Amino acid sequence: MRTRLSLSAVALALAAGGTPALAQSMDHSAHSEHSVSTPMDHTEQGMNHAEHMAAMNDDVAGAEAILTSYRDALTSRDAEAMAALFAQESFIYENGKAEGSFTHYMEHHLGPELDAITSFTFGEPTLAVTRMGHMAYGRETYTYRIELADGRVIDREGVATSVLAHDADGWKIVQYHSSSRAPRNN
């Protein structure tokens, strides 16, 4: 009965030309300085909603650059450059294992491996980033080849998903999840 009354109230409000209170209070501007209950007036800033959304979507290039920089830092085995791309409160998942923060991952997993790598190359990378306000998520596919000091060679197909956050300092990776497998023989 309660659900029927709630749905009836929404239907009556819509039929009367009204908009449910929840829809009225939603702020689609994605600006943290505006509260959810106060709609943003883009004309105050000299831009309309379409221009604002276009500007937000254009900024995915910054998030894409962070993910590309991470791949570049891996190939050059530059631990300092990699660390600069991650938020302090980050989470890394690799091949079904929670690795903790990037700092922990570097100290206990990736860092020791970097010394054993003589060559690290990526092939066929794809990258797509979608921005949602001050957050973005990335989807990547790639192949990679690692040559080790002991002569072993590792060829893999990989995928990664990432979540990035944007603040006054720019984009940072807050969560990174990658997995790989041996290439399939076609």
Automatic annotation (TrEMBL):
From the UniProt annotation, give the residues forming the signal peptide. Answer: 1-23
Where do the segments described as Disordered lie? Answer: 23-43
Does the record bear NADP in its keywords? no
Annotated InterPro entries: NTF2-like_dom_sf, SnoaL-like
Q: What is this protein called?
A: SnoaL-like domain-containing protein
Q: Where is the SnoaL-like domain?
A: 64-180
* Signal listed as a keyword: yes
Q: Which UniProt keywords apply?
A: Signal
UniProt organism field? Croceicoccus mobilis
Pfam families, sorted = SnoaL_3 (PF13474)
Q: What is the lineage of its organism?
A: Bacteria, Pseudomonadati, Pseudomonadota, Alphaproteobacteria, Sphingomonadales
